[in-house]
């Protein structure tokens, strides 16, 4: 018997030049899993950190990079419900393995691709939209003012749209005027260039001195002081990344009087059950909004899977406004 092979992104720990495509065995779906013939995938910050050898996948998960993919179900494993069938167009939230020609995952982690979206667009949804959705859903955002760091990132561009749709107010920080202008055109009320000094003063000005009720923070250390000044009394501060590092010298005496809630959130290591209910809730609440154009995934650039090195290099410049997507195969996209 000839074992089927596929192309997948592999790496030896280090810089972007350590990435390469290799032939690996075609994965077979286990109990309650489906196999997806991947048409498009995307890269996330976590992929660049994993590539450096600083972020191992969860136990039992492939070391092929890629936390999301879009394509067609081409095989259904045992124990899947009858409504999960070969030929369905889906996008999937993955713990790894998306940057390949095929990937397997639990059937509960796939969702139908909203009408009128291409595979390229659908591949830009799962990781960042589900991250933004879970961060906001967890704390409830009606009538709040939300400060979104990295407003031009994949999660940032999704969060702005979700906040606006919920009737709340979004303020973003970003590193360029172009990203700020884009955030405002997507529904943010204001944007602050964090490279131009303290953002806290500007946040306080925008909120009549009260501060914001919620901060979405993927940056960590370098913004800690200003976040503390920017947050309102009883404000919630959701930390979901540490782009600038995690070591801070902090005076807890500044947090206590404000009764700050500091919440930490990661998606990749959550249980199957958590991801299943998240995917279900998200699909129910957003599929119509994607289909009618209210929500749209923001795509900065599309690379071929074979151009994975250039894709990682681009992400590490921080230039991208929205998602960097990988086109895995020609037909149908």
Automatic annotation (TrEMBL):
InterPro entries: ADH-like_C, ADH-like_N, ER, GroES-like_sf, NAD(P)-bd_dom_sf, Quinone_OxRdtase_PIG3. One of its GO terms (molecular function) is NADPH binding. Keywords: NADP, Oxidoreductase. It comes from the Eukaryota. Pfam families: ADH_N, ADH_zinc_N. Residues 14-326 form the Enoyl reductase (ER) domain. This is Enoyl reductase (ER) domain-containing protein. It comes from Candidula unifasciata.
């Amino acid at each position: 018997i000839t074992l089927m092979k596929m192309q997948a992104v592999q790496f030896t720990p280090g810089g972007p030049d350590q990435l390469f495509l290799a032939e690996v065995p075609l994965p077979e779906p286990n109990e309650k899993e489906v196999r997806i013939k991947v048409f498009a995938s995307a890269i996330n910050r976590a992929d660049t950190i994993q590539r450096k050898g600083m972020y191992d996948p969860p136990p039992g998960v492939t070391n092929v990079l890629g936390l999301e993919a879009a394509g067609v179900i081409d095989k259904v494993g045992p124990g899947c419900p009858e409504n999960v069938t070969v030929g369905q167009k889906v996008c999937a939230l993955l713990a790894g393995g998306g940057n390949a020609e095929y990937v397997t995952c639990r059937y509960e982690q796939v969702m139908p691709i909203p009408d009128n979206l291409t595979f390229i667009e659908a591949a830009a949804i799962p990781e960042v939209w589900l991250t933004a959705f879970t961060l906001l859903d967890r704390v409830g955002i009606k009538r709040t003012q939300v400060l979104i760091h990295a407003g031009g990132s994949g999660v940032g561009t999704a969060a702005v749209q979700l906040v606006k749709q919920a009737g709340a107010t979004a303020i973003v920080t970003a590193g360029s005027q172009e990203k700020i202008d884009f955030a405002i055109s997507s529904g943010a009320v204001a944007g602050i260039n964090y490279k131009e000094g303290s953002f806290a003063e500007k946040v306080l000005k925008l909120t009549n001195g009260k501060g914001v009720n919620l901060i979405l923070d993927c940056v960590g250390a370098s913004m800690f002081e200003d976040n503390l000044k920017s947050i309102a009394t009883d404000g919630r501060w959701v930390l979901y990344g540490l782009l600038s590092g995690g070591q801070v010298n902090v005076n807890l005496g500044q947090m206590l009087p404000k009764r700050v809630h500091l919440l930490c959130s990661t998606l990749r290591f959550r249980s199957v059950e958590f991801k299943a209910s998240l995917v279900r809730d998200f699909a129910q609440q957003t599929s119509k909004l994607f289909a009618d154009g209210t929500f749209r995934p923001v795509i900065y650039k599309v690379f071929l899977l074979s151009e994975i090195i250039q894709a990682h290099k681009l992400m590490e410049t921080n230039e991208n406004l929205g998602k960097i997507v990988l086109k895995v195969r020609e037909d149908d996209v």
